[in-house]
FAD-binding oxidoreductase (Ramlibacter ginsenosidimutans), 471 residues
Amino acid sequence: MNEQVLTQLRAAVGAPNVLTEGDLTPWEQDWRKRTRGKALAVVRPGSTEEVAAVVRASAAAGTPIVPQGGNTGLVVGGVPDASGREVVLSLTRMNKVRAIDRDNLTMTVDAGCVLQNLQQAADDAGLLFPLSLAAEGSCTIGGNLATNAGGTQVLRYGNTRELCLGLEVVTAQGEVWNGLTGLRKDNTGYDLRDLFIGSEGTLGVITGATMKLYPRPAARVTAWAAVPSMESAVRLLGLALQQLGAGLTGFEVMGQFALSLADKHYPQLRVPLFRDHPYCVLLENSDQESEEHARGRFEHLLEAALADGCVADAVVAENIAQARGLWHIRESIPLAQADEGLNIKHDISLPVSRIPVFCAETDALLQRQIPGVRLVNFGHLGDGNLHYNVQAPAGGDMKAFLRDHEEQVNTLVYDQVKRFEGSISAEHGIGALKAAKLPEYKSKVAIGLMRALKQALDPGNVLNPGRVLSV
């Protein structure tokens, strides 16, 4: 049966694009290097029609398919399991910008288009595609849509879902739904687009998308502020929203230990103001008028924040290079944490108003249960999304820490998230990593509806089985 389906896959996409031999690590190992699966084959289609042919052949043989973009996911949702039965459907050959409609402010692209290339194409057209995240040089828009990725500008522009107007999707039966509309209003029945966005390849394979574009700001100004507490960071956010309104396009909070790791592993970054303050905040103001206007509004905000006491000290980037340097510090925290050793990651969201109490209580609970544990807390405070990560005590055995404490730590953190009416996944998705946990933290009714949708759209359980919903 394996040889039969491989023959059909080679016929669909060409033999050179069906990989079964050699080093398949880039497709079989997840980005965090915690999981390594075994694929029956890595299949690399070059068109939507080829994707549909691959799905039809796989579905007929009962061969599971794992759709994969840039393989930058953090929840083991885009790599094969260890069975050797699953086909990895890599969409990276489908990487074209199909069209840009300046008047409609839209861009239609292949799903395998790298995010940074979308940003550049929009910029070349004098426009802005605002989705921005640390993996933008390698992640693909299809993966961003499949996980409903967030990033650093959700506060102003929303998650990837809010940036998408239309999709092209191959169903589990190998049919093609062409929903690549550029319409902002279309009330003709169920919203199929939103059904597939965030479904992590379990309901259909996204092959193309029509995304929103925006006028490019006349100026962007970045500031770095030291704050005395998480409560102060929330108060600063309120002031910034009040004074900057839609101009506030970024608001990131970073804990002292998180910044100390960036300083330790990348001393050339020259992290400012972190040594004497428990938190720092990175703010971005995008202005449609001028650099002078943007800077003036920022300086007025910081004066008010200093008078209020929610900011202890601050620096404003003098030029684009300095601004990029400050953002590079924020983006280097996950890499610095990886350099420090294995860790337990949490991608959680909470009502912004409840974040200070959540952090104080959960920090204390973790320290009580695991003395010396180190907390790497950073994230998108503007939209309530924290990367609340847990590092082993200094000098400890990292592998032993994960083996002995991961389940304990996850349960403690997720129980706290539930108590504070939050979500255990804000922007990374569920994948295989959290699939077994999801029913504990989502209502039975919601899980039942999700299972019904899966059964209706993919009755053969061919598309990414075991991800999002555990078997």
About this structure: The first strand starts at residue 18 and ends at 19. The chain is about 40% helix and 20% strand. The chain has four domains: 2-90, 97-215, 217-335, 341-427.
